[in-house]
Structures are given as structure tokens and as C-alpha cells.
Amino acid sequence: MNKSPILFTPFHLKELTLKNRIVMTPLYSGYANSDGMASQMTLDHYREMATSEVALIVVENASVDQSGLGFPSNLRIDHDRYIPGLSSLAKVIHDQGALAFLQINHGGRYAFVPATLAPSPLKFGKVVPKEMTKEDIRRIVEAFKDGAKRAGEAGFDGVEIHGGTGYLLVQFLSPRTNLRKDSYGGNLENRMHFVLEVMEAILSGVGKEYPVGYRFLADEGLPDGLHSEETSILAGELEKRGVAYLSVMAGTYDAFVLPEYIEKEKREAYMADYAGIIKKVVSKVPVITAGRIQTFDTAEKILEEGTADLIGLARVLLADPLWLKKAKGLVDEPVIKCEPSCSLCTEMAMRGKKIFCSQWDKKRRDKFIKE
User: Fold this and answer.
1) Is 82 a catalytic residue?
2) Domains in the chain and their CATH numbers?
3) Bridge partners of residue 250, in order along the sequence
4) Is 217 exposed, middle or buried (0-12, 13-18, 19+ CB in 10 A)?
């Protein structure tokens, strides 16, 4: 087995030093309380993830506004009352020796609320969202800014803007979901307007030195959607504004159900090619890649070839929190792999349930999942 040391070498992210090249990328757990507070189960989950020896934990999305709640048990950061719970969450991660970022988000037309907001009134399920006015846009931009400031107050080392999976920022970017005729719609420059306003507002609130990463959708995975020709331009614009990193992904909820996406998603490192495309257009911004990177050799090859700078694990780490310890030889057991034909954790999340992994043994499942 190739045990080349790149995977275990430190990496500098702005003023922070990551102890190795592994990042836990966000994965919705459903463990938060129904009021958006971090629960004891949330704390226990992230404590376990942080004991894995990964360098950085990016906590699952916290909603910056009540209108953007993506799930029934979504973390929230739209009021100061959420700061103490999030502070406890950051602390349990720090106590295990990992850095902690918080992903902040607005669900847009995918939000789990009766009256949704979106750039254009395109029906999703049974709901037709309200087309956002310019006042709505200004309010949500400020909500992102305020959410990022609260994350800093709670002790997080940085924030990650959720610009993936088809949520609000993607809805403004995509020609498929943005049919506006004003300065926020039409050509790419206009469609990028909202995203760049969010980025600039956050940086103005937290300061240029506070790391602001971006969950970056390279390709929507739909014929009439967003593709890398346009997203490459966005990557350059985010680089100009001082984004801390780009965590590259592909596909949205509308694409996830397509047979071709389902088949592609079974392959190891299926999103690495997209990271490579974006890596070529940003010279100073670190790139994270994820997408079922199951083996140490695959992770090392990605780093050796310069496809990405950092390796993101989400479902893989959920299946086996000892992945990195096994890579280091600290645990002499085979990796428990994320089963490519299984989407149980995703299905549970979509049903608004607490997630668990089909590969867990009964003892571990019972620790987190209580009927």
C-alpha cells in the first residue's frame, strides 16, 4: 500500500495551519433540536468525528434566515440565542485537536418552510416560491453577513458559504432557475451578482483575515443548467475577493435522482475531475475535492497529481471514523467502506430523519439513533 506522506503533511489556510490534508466536508445529520439548537446528539456526533484526527471539521449547514431552513432539524444561526449552543459545538471539536468551520446557508426554493423564497417563481414540489424583491435580496445578504459574524463569536475558526447542491446561491447562478429580467438575471455577470454580494458582505463583516470558504458547484449535472464554462469564471471572481478555499462538488437535488448521476456517484472520487477543472483556473486558492474517496491510495494520487490540495470525507468518515487512523497505521483493521449501492443516509435526511449508516454495527447505531 502506498503510504506517501503528502496526506499527512500540514497545510496552511490563510493564518491557520491544518495538521494534515483531510477535511470533513459537511453532511446533514438531523441531530439538531427542532428549534435549531445544537443538541447533545449533535455534540456527541461531532466529538466522534473530531477524534478521527482529521485537520478540519466543516459543520453541516446552519440557516441564516428562518425562510431558508432546509430540513426539519436544521441548525440555525439567524439569532444571537444560537451562539451558546454553537460555541459548545466548536469547543468539542477544538478539544479533540481539530479546527472547526461552520457552513452557512439559505435553502431558497428547496427550503422546508410553507412560503419559500427564490430568484424566480419556479414550482418545486407543490410550492411556488415567491420571487425575491430587491429588498428581500438585501435582507438575505445581510443575514449571511450576520450569520458569519455569529459563527466567529461562537468560536468557529472560519465559515463556509453553501454555494452547492442547488440551494439559493446556485438558484441565482443557474440559467435554469434564474429567469429574472433585472440586474440579478440574464447574463452570467448579472447571475453572479447575488453570490458576489454575499461574499463581499461577509468579508466586510468578519474582516479579510477571517477565513471564508465556499462550497462550490462546478456543474449542475443537468443539460440546461450551470456548467464549468461559467463556474470557472465565478471561481476567478471569488479568488479576486479573497475566498479562503473552494470545496468543489457537482450535481443538485434535481440531478441526484437521474439514472446517469446515480451510476456515476457509485465511482470512487467521482467528483475529482471537477475539482481539477477548477484548480486550473485558480492559482492561489486551495481546492478541496470529495466524492466517495474510499482508499488511501486514491487520496494520495489526487494530491500527488495536483488535482486538489485537500481531501474531503463525509459519508466515508460517517461509515468509518477511524479512516485516517487506519491510513496512518495506528489502527490495524480494514476500512469499513461506504457502500456504493447504498444511499441510506441521504434517504433518511430527505425524509427529515436522523441519519445513520448501513455499515454501522448495532452498538454504534444505538449510540446515536434513539427511537
Assistant:
1) no
2) 5-368 (3.20.20.70)
3) 219
4) buried
Are β-strands 246-250 and 130-131 bridged in parallel, bridged antiparallel, or unpaired?
unpaired
pLDDT of residue 354: 87
For residues 89 and 163, is the Cβ–Cβ distance under 8 A?
no
Contact 96, 325 (CB under 8 A): no
CA atoms within 13 Å, Cβ hemisphere of 333: 10
Given 28, 46, 110, 167, the catalytic residue: 167
pLDDT digits (tens, 9 = 90+) for 174-227: 999 999 999 999 999 999 999 999 999 999 999 999 999 999 999 999 999 999
Does this model's pTM top 0.85? My answer is: yes
Q: Residue 256, Cα to own-chain centre: how many angstroms?
A: 16
State CA 117 to chain mean position distance.
Answer: 21
State the Cα–Cα distance between residues 73 and 85, nearest whole angstrom: 14
Q: Please give, one letter per residue, the 3-state secondary structure of the chain.
A: CCCCHHHHCCEEECCEEECCCEEECCCCCCCCCCCCCCCHHHHHHHHHHHCCCCCEEEEEEEECCHHHCCCCCCEECCCHHHHHHHHHHHHHHHHCCCEEEEEEECCHHHCCCCCCEECCCCCECCECCEECCHHHHHHHHHHHHHHHHHHHHCCCCEEEEEECECCHHHHHHCCCCCCCCCCCCCCHHHHCHHHHHHHHHHHHHHCCCCCEEEEEEEECCCCCCCCHHHHHHHHHHHHHCCCCCEEEEECEHHHHCCHHHHHHCCCCCCCHHHHHHHHCCCCCCCEEECCCCCCHHHHHHHHHCCCCCEEEECHHHHHCCCHHHHHHCCCCCCCCCCCCCCCHHHHHHHCCCCCCCCCCCHHHHHHHCCC
Cα within 13 Å of Cα(298), Cβ side: 17
* Helix axis angle, 134-153 to 193-206, nearest 10°: 40
The C-alpha cell at 137 is 435580496
Could you report the average pLDDT of every consecutive run of 10 residues in the chain (371 residues)?
Answer: 75 97 96 96 96 97 96 95 98 98 97 95 93 98 98 98 97 98 98 98 97 98 94 98 98 89 90 97 96 95 97 95 93 90 80 84 73 45
CA proximity to 279, closest of 307, 302, 299: 307
Instruction: State how far Cα 292 lies from the chain centre.
Output: 14
